[in-house]
């Protein structure tokens, strides 16, 4: 192993220390010298600089000079936090990275592993949940119809979660935006990155949950979404003209299939010009959106980064006038081909460009647009082998991002900076509403700005199974709000496959049906009456569980724990659960066991403990008899809040609350319910209610009580029903008005 004492020269740039530009940089340099003195005094090699940033969080650098010259953190929500810390001695950490360079000149960080360590994360990756023996490359890629051998997809998360044999865990961030190869071996995690030497951030914890929460503390918490965004979404490339959209909406309502959102892909635009509407296909977008909202549907419209290079087109003219375009290495304006033809590309690494881009949303949102989809923002470029910009293109980035640099450095955060600008613009245009943005490309920390999905997947059985593992690994990598294209984007698939996909997809954080142009129709009713019935039941389940889903989203927004969690979270020390990705947890108390193979023949062992299979009492027609729906289990000691069947989130308030209760061996159970008005920002000032429910058995009487734990929001008066699930599957029920104890006598 070669220990490094100096930074690798940047391509085309002399290897010189940066000149101080402000007192903050000078202070950081003084801190580096102090750290170096302390580490040398404690007997550490000069080449290895270690800082304790916080409880259980440590930073390691290749060398003191590498630390001094490190680029700013893009992932940390407070980048300066990565620069603060105290020196630690050689015995001051449990994880001991080793630094070197490889034959390709990349900076390498190797983290040796104890035997029996299981590896997860690495963001948006195909294949199984367990990542041992896999290789990932962080390079945002237009990866249409990707497969198990695809090294890189649309997003980059240079992060690995490691769970030791005893259930303790640590996470590792390679804090670099450059292309980075991640090898998750059985004996080591190896990061090998291009560009400049990078800091390595290690988060150590007693459990994987603790590490995941700490990751969110460092990289930021997801914003609370509007409640409608956790309903079901229907999309395809593309629904047009306007009459097709109206017909689609009527199709959901007349069939009583729940749905909250209809999406518009690029065919709504005038010649694919971003921020325009086709006079032929969508002559009155506001009128359409108003009509959709009157039917209980929100709307999402696509906005791409490529700006058609056509004089007289207002977005292009503003871009040129403001000098907002990405440049070539020779200083000329870069042009690349995408859907509209030759395009210019905003340089979202510039504050001035992001601020200009944000202003474009004012008139767009005024059409009563309620959600935005940023796509093609890897950025994707047609008719070139790389599928993206030349790596020597120039970005005139903000000093806060690291200053001017080439596309090699900024490629992976291009989409992240775009959705940051989009979010700001949408919020400014509709200040009283919560923002919903979906992004195809993103980077570690980008969950602060946008939800995501697993890209252009394929309508086959492998991709159906990967729906679970990909959603889980994205959640473990700091992105709670994600899910797959239900039914598969590329290709047709079969009725059997679609039926199983809808059954499991309805239980995922982001639930959207989507397919590509030229494929068969894939609405919930497109495969005949039996598939339609399963789809209806699956979506009714989702809407019955909306109170719980919304509570989990609030938990994600305040703790960083994902909505959908791997089964090994139930018992991190159980080796039998480490590779389990044919099932998953919602929160900590609900276990979902879907059937994702043609024969539904996978054998699944429940986690240790008392897990009770349950069903719903909400007149979901044929629910308990539908073998395509996942089995649902409630952990003993848990209370699950559920509501009535709805056709859309805002159809009715939570005026009927049903608590599903599984008492533990001590005759106790507990649960929480989060509520607010579903949109707007009043919840930030206390306009919410977090209710705690407790159940206890004394003699043969179960008493269920509630108390307001936080918030001052007052829900409507309602009836509260209780369903007690016994070990043998029996159910005992009781009902009372809200805020009153509910007493239920248990009888044999």
Overall description:
Strand 9 (159-163) and strand 10 (169-174) form a beta hairpin. The chain is 21% helix and 25% strand. The protein starts with 22 loop residues before the first helix and ends with a strand. The relative contact order is 0.09. It folds into three domains: 23-219, Immunoglobulin-like, CATH 2.60.40.1760; 227-551, Glycosidases (TIM Barrel, Alpha-Beta Barrel); 571-745, Immunoglobulin-like (Sandwich), CATH 2.60.40.1180. The protein is globular. With 748 residues, it is of the alpha+beta class. A nine-stranded parallel sheet has the order 26-25-23-20-16-15-14-28-27.
Properties at a glance:
alpha+beta, 3 domains, 41 strands, seven-stranded antiparallel sheet, Immunoglobulin-like, TIM Barrel, disordered N terminus, 748 residues
Helix content: 10-25%
pLDDT below 50 for ≥5 consecutive residues: which ranges?
1-47
CATH topology of the largest domain: TIM Barrel
Q: In which order are the strands of the major sheet placed? A: 26-25-23-20-16-15-14-28-27
Distance between the termini: 70 Å
Q: Categorize the overall geometry.
A: globular
Summed up, the helix count is 14
Largest sheet: 9 strands, parallel
**Mind telling me the CATH class of the largest domain?**
Alpha Beta
Mean pLDDT value: 92
Strand content: 15-25%
Class computed from helices, strands and strand pairing:
alpha+beta
How many distinct domains? 3
CATH homology-level superfamily of the largest domain = Glycosidases
Number of strands: 41
What radius of gyration results from the CA coordinates? Answer: 26 Å
Provide the CATH architecture of the largest domain: Alpha-Beta Barrel
